[in-house]
From TrEMBL:
<dbReference type="InterPro" id="IPR011006">
    <property type="entry name" value="CheY-like_superfamily"/>
</dbReference>
<protein>
    <recommendedName>
        <fullName>CheY-like receiver</fullName>
    </recommendedName>
</protein>
<dbReference type="InterPro" id="IPR036641">
    <property type="entry name" value="HPT_dom_sf"/>
</dbReference>
<dbReference type="GO" id="GO:0000160">
    <property type="term" value="P:phosphorelay signal transduction system"/>
</dbReference>
Length: 260
């Protein structure tokens, strides 16, 4: 058994080292790309398309590795550039923040678990395409959405962005638990259906762990309290119902948990 463990550890270390080398190369290329976009030596549309492609690749390559901070940062980078329709001077300044942080992590910068939430919050917030952020007071409030359906998550993101809240979206319930523990969001909003786990399962798990029990949790669902499907959901949780009651329920949940 020890021989197998050693081989597994050696293989994992090799894969991680290969990824870090790739990460350094990509970060250097992104530094050049951002500089070329600033100087307009490359077309804005072409540059943004390259940024989106590279961010998506980094995110997907990092997900299966034991590199928690790099997973978090590349996830946020992909979220940020994925929402952009254009990359002007202000967007390029914020993209630079991500690229600089990725480059430092690739070069070995260490971030403690205690510092991780603050580091993540210091990153630029993603921009919802149809929101004029110049007219919105941005708040240091982060809400994690655990919503598999892209169309539905965009609806919730837009409502929260219009209030100035930061959001990040996770599609998978298991990944959401790790993200909540590492980033300590101010609130979690989860869909009822999350695959193997349900939103009720996620709410119960977060409510039972001392490290996350104090984080407000709301379930995005079409069910009402008393429905058997909600059996086990902690009574402290809030319901945000789909349909015409969505806006009122969201506002009530934010107020109830003093998310301001």
């Amino acid at each position: 058994m020890a021989a197998f463990d050693t081989a597994d550890n050696e293989n994992e270390l090799r894969v991680i080292n290969e990824f870090l080398e790739e990460l350094r190369d990509t970060a250097s290329q992104l530094q050049v790309l951002v500089g070329n976009m600033r100087s307009k030596s490359i077309g804005a549309a072409e540059g943004l398309a390259t940024l989106k492609r590279e961010a998506s690749n980094l995110r997907s390559h990092a997900q299966g590795l034991s590199l928690p901070m790099i997973k978090l940062i590349t996830h946020r980078f992909d979220e940020y550039v994925g929402e952009l329709k254009e990359a002007g001077p202000s967007e390029l300044e914020e993209i630079q923040v991500f690229v600089d942080k990725i480059e430092k992590l690739a070069d070995g910068e260490q971030i403690s678990e205690a510092d991780a939430p603050a580091v993540v919050r210091a990153l630029p917030a993603k921009r919802t395409a149809d929101i004029d952020f110049g007219k919105i007071e941005k708040k240091n409030v982060e809400i994690l959405l655990v919503v598999p359906e892209k169309a539905m998550s965009r609806i919730v993101e837009r409502e929260l962005a219009a209030c100035g809240y930061r959001t990040s979206t996770i599609r998978d319930g298991f990944a959401a638990m790790e993200t909540v523990v590492r980033t300590r969001p101010d609130m979690v909003i989860a869909s009822m259906e999350l695959g193997l786990l349900s939103g009720v399962d996620l709410g119960c798990a977060l409510g039972s762990m001392p490290v996350t029990e104090g984080i407000p949790f709301a379930l995005f669902t079409s069910y009402e309290w008393g429905n058997p499907k909600l059996k086990g959901l902690p009574p402290r949780a809030s319901l945000i119902r789909k349909g015409p009651k969505f806006g009122d329920d969201l506002a009530e949940s934010l107020s109830r948990f003093n998310i301001t």
